[in-house]
Specification:
Layout: H1 16-22, H2 25-29, H3 48-52, H4 57-62, H5 68-81, H6 86-110, H7 114-121, H8 124-163, H9 168-188, H10 194-219, H11 223-231, H12 240-257, H13 260-269, H14 271-277, H15 286-321, H16 336-347, H17 349-382, H18 388-404, H19 409-435, H20 438-441, H21 448-472
């Protein structure tokens, strides 16, 4: 777990001589080649059987890209504007691939998480400011994801609870308590080893993907319009209100897709394999790092594109089932419950149940990932140890309060995603600064084209946030 991570080293990476000297003969004699991950790293080799042993970190991060916030924003975007905003998901996914790879690269090359690197290379006031922004994003994420898990379970068992005398709020609260226990159980998988937790999360991703593949099969979308809307960026220009609504939905989708908390987390998820590669030496050899980076790029590419396809399926389902393909405009605002109750009569009870199962799997897995990210953030920025189960217990309280007072879960989910879009630059900018610095990355410093792409991504996000702020004011 993140709580077990050792403090990052002070050595500057990237020097050939340094990396060749770091792995001693004693380490190799101690059985390095027999370690699960180290066995997959062979100089000059790149085989498919090696890649599989490195699959995991990006899939854990990808859960945040298909969390309940995505359900809320994609249902809203699809039902209001039809297929029109599919292009937002395509470009958000391209941004996510770049950002997640840079986060993983920072962790692999330096042996530090992003929060640890910020603490090490930035001033104390800047570090505290970044920590506050990171905590805001982590709390917003925890709230949205846990609400989604509780809502998914409530859709499945709520009718039975209501039939036994529970109130609507009481049924939701009971579902939230069950979800709490389930998340603790998922976190406990890590006690058997980090790969067990990764496999559990990957299984959840697989279930969500199968559920939405089933939904798309049922709705029979217009594939030509789907393709055009994916590659052609447009907003709804039917009216000023429609324009404002589509911009708001687009920024919400961006905030739900490029998540700030997993930018911090991914740099931590690569650390266990990094330690296994060279358990005696302080850092692995340079060629090991290069090999690891190539494997991780494959992991990121596959996982992020899988999340993109699932998000696109959400939009398509909402566009056809709720928006009749064209969208009903910004005045139409269906809730997740509305989507569930619409799918049953329209496509059959199985479609509604599959939708609820996907939401439940999304909420449970993403809530687990959110807790892990929160722990990485507080330990990295403040250099304190914080038990992950305590973090889960503390973060579940606000969600239970929100449920207990009967607040609208959908509104909270959507607003939280917009908030995440505003806190995203506080994670992006430090990541770009650090990966662009030679004294941090050594010979692994970002190439000129990567630097340009990173700053363009950040500029686009800031511009969309400015447009949204003007619209709100």
């Amino acid at each position: 777990m993140p709580s077990e991570y050792e403090p990052c080293g002070d050595a500057t990476p990237g020097s050939d001589a340094q990396h060749e000297a770091l792995l001693s003969p004693a380490a190799e004699a101690a059985g390095l080649s027999e370690l699960p991950v180290a066995a997959a790293v062979k100089r000059g080799a790149f085989r498919s059987d090696q890649v599989w042993s490195y699959f995991g970190p990006a899939f854990v991060a990808s859960v945040a890209y298909i969390d309940p916030g995505n359900f809320a924003t994609n249902i809203l975007g699809g039902s209001q504007f039809g297929y029109r905003l599919l292009w937002v998901l395509l470009w958000s996914n391209a941004m996510a691939i770049l950002i997640q790879y840079l986060s993983a690269k920072l962790g692999i090359v330096t042996g530090c998480t992003l929060p640890q690197s910020c603490r090490k290379h930035f001033s104390r006031p800047v570090t505290i400011l970044l920590w506050v922004c990171a905590e805001i994003s982590a709390v917003a994420t925890d709230l949205a994801e846990f609400l989604g898990a509780a809502l998914g379970l409530d859709l499945l068992i709520g009718p039975a609870l209501l039939a036994h005398g529970f109130s609507a709020t009481g049924a939701m609260f009971f579902s939230a308590m069950i979800a709490t226990v389930a998340v603790f159980g998922i976190l406990a998988l890590d006690l058997a080893g980090f790969q067990w937790l990764e496999r559990g999360i990957m299984a959840f991703v697989g279930v969500i993907g199968l559920c939405y593949g089933f939904e798309v099969f049922l709705v029979h979308p217009d594939w030509h319009q789907t393709f055009i809307s994916t590659i052609l960026p447009t907003f709804d220009l039917r009216s000023h209100k429609a324009m404002s609504g589509s911009v708001f939905a687009a920024v919400g989708m961006l905030g739900a897709t490029v998540m700030p908390h997993v930018i911090y987390l991914h740099s931590a998820l690569v650390q266990p394999r990094l330690r296994e590669m060279s358990p005696v030496a302080k850092k692995p050899k340079r060629w090991m790092l290069e090999q690891y980076l190539r494997f991780e790029l494959v992991d990121v590419f596959v996982a992020m594109n899988g999340a993109w396809l699932i998000n696109s399926a959400m939009i398509v389902m909402a566009a056809v089932a709720l928006g009749a393909g064209y969208g009903k405009g910004p005045d139409f605002a269906p809730t997740i419950e509305d989507a569930f109750h619409t799918l049953g009569p329209l496509l059959g009870k199985g479609a509604a149940v599959v939708f609820a199962v996907a939401l439940l799997c999304s909420g449970l897995s993403s809530s687990t990932v959110g807790v892990m990210a929160g722990q990485v953030i507080i330990e990295g920025f403040l250099e304190i140890k914080f038990p992950i189960f305590l973090r889960r217990f503390i973060t579940v309280v606000p969600a239970l309060i929100v449920i207990g007072v009967g607040a609208d879960p959908l509104k909270i989910l959507i607003d939280s995603q917009v908030l995440l879009s505003f806190t995203l630059p506080a994670a992006l900018i430090p990541l770009l600064i650090l990966t662009n610095r030679h004294d941090v990355m050594g010979d692994f410093v970002s190439a000129a084209r990567t630097k340009v792409a990173g700053w363009v991504v950040t500029a686009v996000i800031l511009a969309l946030n400015a447009v949204l702020l003007v619209q709100v004011l």
